[in-house]
Amino acid sequence: MRYVAIGDSFTEGLGDELPDGSVRGWADRVAAGLAAAGGEPVEYANLAIRGRLLEPIVTEQLDTALSLTPAPTLITLNGGGNDMMRPGGDMGRLIDLTEQAVRRCADAGVRLVLISGADPSDRLPFGGVMRRRGELLTAAIGDLAARYGLDFADVFHDAEIRRAGYWSPDRLHLNAAGHQRAAGLILTAMGCPTAAHVVDPGRAESRRLLAEARYYREHVLPWINRRMRGRSSGDHRTAKFPDWTPVGLG
Fold first, then answer.
1. What local confidence, expressed as pLDDT, does residue 185 receive?
2. What is the pTM of this model?
């Protein structure tokens, strides 16, 4: 199996940091799960870059994925989260872009798995807008998967992963526990039944005024500043695994 993951920070693995500062994430965990299920190493590439909008994911990243030698046998696609955070997000265009990617993979004879990202809206500013857009996009991607006979991992509607214990301090990206749970859900959707990780409830999340002020200062305001300057967290970053990397059984 030769597996390529394309997407944004969710697929790159932001929030699931290793001791050396690199990120792991659900896609790395899925590659390991596929190797264990198949009983042999998997060749793995991860082209996802944080901050990417859907269009460059389904053009630039997909171009690179399909041009790898030897060709991939499996691609996972998630995207659109960054688009939904922009004012006036065009859900129809996101759906059209996703369908174009579906058709390209079908024409290339590559198995495609569609994935909806986890729903962060409970604790985000303007979370209601994010949830409405996420519901529309998730439903449309589910319809595409059904129409084209593709596997679809609906992480967006997993109620457990919405709990605070699965999220990083920025409330936008999953932490290590969240990525582990997402990996289990995605492997199961791909036909490799895996128990989804569950964390203990722990202490209730603090939503006091000082904690909220710190959250806005450390996470929301820097994001707004980048948007105002036309910058992205992924500027000048490259894919973490741009070419085939063996993932073994250990």
1. 98
2. 0.88
